[in-house]
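Structure, all two chains, one model.
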Amino acid sequence: MRVLRNSNVVIALILVAAMVVIGLINPAFWQLSNIFSLLKANVVIGLMALGVLLIMISGGIDVSFTAFAIAAMYLVVRTMVAIDYDGVILPFIFATAIGGLLGLMNAGIIHKFHMIPLIVTLGTASLVRGLVLGGVGTSNVNIDEMPPSLIELGRANIVTLERANGTTFGLTAMILVYAALAILIHLVLTRTMIGRSVYAYGADPEAARRVGFKTGRTMIFVYCTAGALAGFAGLLHSSMSWLANPRGFVGLELDVIAAVVLGGCSIFGGRGSVIGTVLGVFILVMIQNSLILMGIDMTWQRVVVGGVLISAVAITALRDRRSPA
Amino acid sequence: MMKGNTRGTEAADGKGSGPGRFLIRARADTNIQLGIICILIIILMTALQPRMFLSSYNFESMAFFMPELVLLSIAMMIAMLTGGIDLSIVGVANLAGIAAGTLFGFLAGEAGVGGLGTGAVILGVGVGLIVGVLAGLVNGLLISGLKITPILATLGTGQVFIGLCVVLTGGPAIVGFPSGWTWIGNGKIASIPVPFLLFVVLCVALALLLERTSFGLRLKLIGTNPKAAVFAGIRKGRMILWSYMLTGALAAMAGILLSARVNAAKSDYGSSYLLQAVLIAVLAGTNPAGGRGNVLGVALAVAALTLLATGLQMMRVSNHLIDFVWGAFLIAVIALNSLSARKGL
């Protein structure tokens, strides 16, 4: 029974159980093309979830990262179109930097004015979205205008297979980017002082301060990283979908938060892991994408996501009350 | 205990824990400031757009659409009194309108909703309010029973409520309500808009409830110091349950007004109201960590923001930039509150 104490094992078991159930209802689930498209759908939500994981471990919450992702993505793509620039590395550096700077704004306001993160990020989200839509533009950058290099990147596959009817499908190479960043965040959280300070701050901010952690620095690290990851993920999304839509990502913050909570991150702060989050993201994306396979009407999607979030939150709340870590 | 809260209380800069007299003075100060802001905005907008802004039509239209925002903001404020928050209010509002609309469609059948009389409308209002109370009950049970943080609990239930709206309507808006229903949102009694009358009656009732009854006092005590409240013999869980049911009922009432005013109900109406309700509650001097908030302040803050918004719209500022202004406003209010509190200490 000791194994069951480990949240990640429990989450993995839930994942396997869900896969078996969905596979029994519709065996098409196990087709390689479906698994590949599921993995592809994991990338953008997963990258954002890594940032939200940091914030939730620190005891905060963020609803502004999707706005930051839009800002970074739309500004960079519009600039690339305007100056006719065609590259990959510089745009991603800029998108990451824009996200990071916006995250710095969150960190500054939350730390300086001691305000509840939810209210601050509600404000900055509205501010950034309003500025992008009102100041930069509301029109999509469609595939005919999108920089070819970004499209090329989004199309890159690790393996490409051929279906019986001659069409091809593949596993996106972006999954490697996601895996690399997940490992990096895992190492930072578990092996570095700044990573430990995030857990300490989440468990008890005052204690973290008295032990000697510079908590301002922790907040900057947490919110900047979340913003930077969101900015990066935003541009990646645009390159994978061949479209830059400044009105996109509305409501996605809830999916991401649900995934992180599903991954065993404590709603009270101080607990959470990258492995759990990666599993949580996979479960959420799988449930969402399998509704059609299971013959459930798409109108139920929001009810399902909300229900998943509530049950995940309730279970972690019960767990954390019984065993105060 | 909820960590977000304790941290917030530290940041509450002693305002909430000060002696009673200080509390009252601080509240009066905020309300006077809000009144002055209203007058300043009226003067500014009159100077910029004299013909349009001062027209009776402008003020009349504000009297029609302001009440729903006031109700949502008071709902948010009541959730904040106990140190919580309710992110599901817009979902509850839409669900109430859609539940009533679905009921009317069901009652009228093929005949069309035009033939439905007053009885059906009263039944519709009842159903809407019951939906709101039940939604609040779910929130309250999750928060006080399962000890889930209010943010995540209401984030999840809000999603479920909006999802139920989509399931009930299948996506598109429910258009066309009985004439008795639209009268609630568009009618007049002695040339005063009905929504405005409802708003005044509800505000007075809620102000009395929060200021003059032990219920209101106990709610504030829970927000000011949860531990002391429990030691003082207050049944915290039950009080929180009641407060979220009240929040749900108010949100449902706002939804009824909204659907009655626009003669339609849809799952994504009023999505920008959430941020505005939080902004108004904070602007009105409500302490999000709990313990402080009053109805008059909320009404004044809504008046200030509505005046500003209509003024900006008359100057043809895009709605996106108005969203930007709200966000910036919220951050500015947070900064000012924090700075003035630090000076006061």
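Residues 18 and 164 of chain B are 44 Å apart (CA to CA).
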